[in-house]
User: What shape does this take?
Amino acid sequence: MDGFNLYDEYGAQRDVQSINKLRIPRLVPVNELTVEATTKKLYDKAHVYHINSISLNSDDETYLSADDLRINLWHLDSTNECYNVVDIKPANMEELTEVITAAKFHPQHCNYFVYSSSKGTIRLCDMRAQALCDQHAKMFEEQEDSTTKSFFSEIISSISDVKFSSCGRYMVSRDYLTVKLWDLNMDSRPIETYNVHEYLRSKLCSLYENDCIFDKFEVVWGGPSKYPFEKPMQNYSLPYSLFVFLNSLFVNIATLVSTLKHSI
Assistant: This one.
């Protein structure tokens, strides 16, 4: 359909003062139906580095965006300004030891959010405490066994994704070889750890040489269940271990495709 009075052929709104005649819309036959997305608002000039996460707040008014070194808080109605809530950029970039890998708002409490880092830590921040959340409320980290530490330990411990459960009590994180389930009330260690890529531990040298060791994987919760070990599907409840198995299956396929791509 074309011949609109208030919009041009690209969908942009026309200046009312420039309209000097009335046009009658008409249907134009097309060979195939195409669906295109149009930009409604543009939030820019706030990030210098690659944006790795966007998370909508539970108040449905604000959202956060995160890059490697900063996390910004936006209001949906304001496109030209935002508030910096986390900034880990050092004065001297040679002193940089970690980067932000993912960020997520709490599903129920609009003042809480978490962000993960390349050093395998997850920090819970409370925006009520201070405007700049450089001081976290809690830090979730599992102490590494010194006997198994290797050259690749820091690389494979980098958390690529973190998600809250729908009830907000639990978190699930994803690193290169494991999926970990965390309780917000216990920050010393995860309550469950699932090895999904353990067979790759002996192949880390080859994966490092073809850069596959730097691949990032996501993780999701199975449905709106309030229980961390169940995933409702129709009239059945699947155990969380089955969810991890399915996640591992898809990830293994993705790793295989990536390895073949680098080998060709």
